[in-house]
Amino acid sequence: MGCGAGAILLHLARGAAIAVGTDINPRAGAFLVLNARLNGFDNVEFRCGDLFAPVAGERFDLLVSQPPFMPTPPAASPAVFRDGGARGDGLWRKVVAGAPDHLTEGGVAVIVGEIGGGISGHLSQAGGEPRDGCQSLCLIGQPVSAEEYAIRASIGALKHGYARYRGDVRMLLRHLRACGLDLLAPLVLTIRRTAQAGGWTLRSDKDVWEDFDLDHALRHIDARLALEESASTTSFVAAADLAAATLIRYRSVGAGDGRDESAHLHLPRGALRRGLEMPLAEWDALEALGGGIELRHEGDWRPVDAAGRGEPGAAVAGAMTRLFEAGLLVVQERAPLAPAPAAVSAGQGGD
Length: 351
Hints:
protein methyltransferase activity, about 350 residues, Small_mtfrase_dom, alpha+beta, 15 strands, Rossmann fold, Euk-Arch_PrmC-MTase, four-stranded antiparallel β-sheet, Outer Surface Protein A, domain 3, six-stranded mixed β-sheet, single chain
């Protein structure tokens, strides 16, 4: 949605039976059709119109959109590809609100944008909070100040001279401050249509636009649901995906006896975080499990073959929690918890 000349759509079309691109700009559609022909795609279709109007009543397995999301001062020169309304969330809110109704069961939407001001309230207004029939994960990257944002966003004005650029920076900065947008951060919102609802927000230390992986996002949603269920009705088995992680051990200055040694994992592309740090004792406890890191969660973490390896202890529980927060746990199976045995109270009887 908002396909432009079709770079993302053509990439996704490689694995699709049919790929539909929509845009309000008919010129963008002409370039999409041309690019599809030049690259040999016969499964690509363009429809011109505003937001969901061209696909009214239809559902898709995957919906991807990066609507215009820049905060726009009232006096700024209009630019359809850029302007997202006063706070930058005008079109983004409409896409988020309408996406679930255009997804098949199990279908996924990935919506790119920015967020500023009060994050929780902004998400609620935008529809990013959980709703019936949907699961969502909002991954928020590192924020920048309003000053830095205005300097970056106005860079295109330099072609008209420094005086124009300086004026645009000042105008945008005044506007951001008037809207209460002192910090702005990139975000990627993943929505999956399913009967079991849930919604979570996660802050990341990485560039979520440049290094987003849908599999990791969905994996984190599955782990979140499994953890919530395991508190009451369900147990699950999870494995840690660390095949591409790089381990770095280091000791804090003045540690002496090594008690402050840490393990730092440099995580692979697509993970929800750039890196992960844990006490070395936690990492050693994971390694001691042997045969891969695979545990069952039944209110707390236990080895899958508990009879053979004993209890994992607090170190393993702490490490698994950290791996979960980085999106590195793969839920492999779920099972209902066995009912607790009924308590029997025997009284003393008399003759």
